[in-house]
Task: inverse folding
């Protein structure tokens, strides 16, 4: 039985393969790791990384910070701060850099956090009408951290962290919002929790017997980073029983698995864990961003999707790297992204063509890059809403001027006119959300500062 052991900056020098990491790379791990989170574990190191190929091995890059993941002026600032050995100065430098890296993209904190009875729910996000995201407080870490993670602020900035323990408030919110059909447990990684904690959140949701709730989703990287969660951990059987209970209660349980490269699918532990999950009646859907230096190749994606299907998984999404953290390092231009997607899509059979993308989870919604087209004598980028803050936007196609350097929706300009069709309505919605956010914040501050006379 393999026991979980994290590897961080505190114990990296105990790593068996430390000799294969150059001094320059170790410096980068330290400098970048003081800004963006760094943690891996013995399973990843022993079974997923090809140490003969570092520093270019994709799983090594996925786990170990690289110098270029910080912009040069940020890297120099952090390096100089570390040389002072002044803890407070180091902390302040890290905080300054983090705030310049867009720690909560797409208005997650301001626009997505709902309220009930005038009280903000800091562990819930509700962006699309059918789906609510729930962040269980004890699940806001991971067995290892992905260097591209768009939720890196969860692990480095306490004041910006999502999370709550009150499952009764989630149930109350679902009762008040009958349009919601799906709850997604996310993080961090909810599957770092012990079975008893997972049950603490899941069972009350089942017992509430909400007529509008049809699907429970769990977003997790554990199949890749710690598959023993479903095979050898002391409470593995209990975890699988919870999954089985969800399915037996009449709900669709979707395990939203994150895989970024086919190297993550090659171990026996992964295959056994997958089989155990599927036996419970759970459906495994897979997703990943398109990442420069890791998987920006049609052959990598085609192999990834084929192997996932062979294991009984359903390819679900190819995302665009979000506009946060080390986006400059991982980003792929949108016109190249759609080309990679199409070439990979053409290499797989219909059973793998359940996948959608490349998709940006942007402020207005999930926007898919569908094609580069000719409109008259000019090139244009065709886009389509997969999800939207306004459900009426879903399925609508719109066009942007061709831009071979654009890496995000905000980089694009309309093909014709001054603004995209959704911009006026979006602006009005965001202004209203900001006003509500500020009103609730002021009310809460007044409540906290009020001291009744005894």
Result:
């Amino acid at each position: 039985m393999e026991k979980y052991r994290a590897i961080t900056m505190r114990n990296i020098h105990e790593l068996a393969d430390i000799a294969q990491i150059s001094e320059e790379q170790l410096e980068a791990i330290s400098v970048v790791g003081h800004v963006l989170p760094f943690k891996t574990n013995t399973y990843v190191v022993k079974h997923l990384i090809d140490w003969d190929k570092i520093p270019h091995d994709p799983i090594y890059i996925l786990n170990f910070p690289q110098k270029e993941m910080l912009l040069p002026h940020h890297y120099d600032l952090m390096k100089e701060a570390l040389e002072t050995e002044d803890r407070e100065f180091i902390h302040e430098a890290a905080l300054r850099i983090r705030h310049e890296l867009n720690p909560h993209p797409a208005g997650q904190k301001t626009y997505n956090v709902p309220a009930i009875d005038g009280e903000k729910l800091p562990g819930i996000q509700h962006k699309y009408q059918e789906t609510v995201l729930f962040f269980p407080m004890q699940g806001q870490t991971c067995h290892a951290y992905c260097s591209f993670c768009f939720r890196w602020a969860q692990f480095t900035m306490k004041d910006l962290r999502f999370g709550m323990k009150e499952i009764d408030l989630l149930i109350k919110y679902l009762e008040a919002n009958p349009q919601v059909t799906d709850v997604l447990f996310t993080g961090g990684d909810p599957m770092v929790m012990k079975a008893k904690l997972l049950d603490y959140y899941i069972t009350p949701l089942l017992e509430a017997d909400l007529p509008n709730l049809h699907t429970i989703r769990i977003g997790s990287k554990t199949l890749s980073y710690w598959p023993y969660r479903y095979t050898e951990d002391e409470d593995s059987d209990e975890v699988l029983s919870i999954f089985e209970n969800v399915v037996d209660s009449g709900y669709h349980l979707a395990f939203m698995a994150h895989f970024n490269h086919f190297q993550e699918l090659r171990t026996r532990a992964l295959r056994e864990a997958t089989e155990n999950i599927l036996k419970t009646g759970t459906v495994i859907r897979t997703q990943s961003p398109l990442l420069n230096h890791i998987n920006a190749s049609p052959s990598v994606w085609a192999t990834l999707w084929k192997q996932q299907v062979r294991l009984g998984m359903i390819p679900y999404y190819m995302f665009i790297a979000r506009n946060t953290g080390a986006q400059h390092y991982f980003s792929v231009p949108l016109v190249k992204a759609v080309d990679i997607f199409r070439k990979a899509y053409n290499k797989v059979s219909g059973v793998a063509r359940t996948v959608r993308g490349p998709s940006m989870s942007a402020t207005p919604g999930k926007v898919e890059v569908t094609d580069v087209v000719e409109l008259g004598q000019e090139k244009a980028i065709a886009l389509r809403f997969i999800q939207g803050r306004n459900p009426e936007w879903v399925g609508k196609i719109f066009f942007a001027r061709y831009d071979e350097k654009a890496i995000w929706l905000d980089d694009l300009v309309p093909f014709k006119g001054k603004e995209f069709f959704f911009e006026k309505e979006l602006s009005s919605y965001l202004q209203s959300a900001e006003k509500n956010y500020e009103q609730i914040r002021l009310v809460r501050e007044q409540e906290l500062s009020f001291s009744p006379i005894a």
Notes: Residues 6-99 form one domain. The mean pLDDT is 93. The chain has three domains: 6-99, 105-340, 362-442.
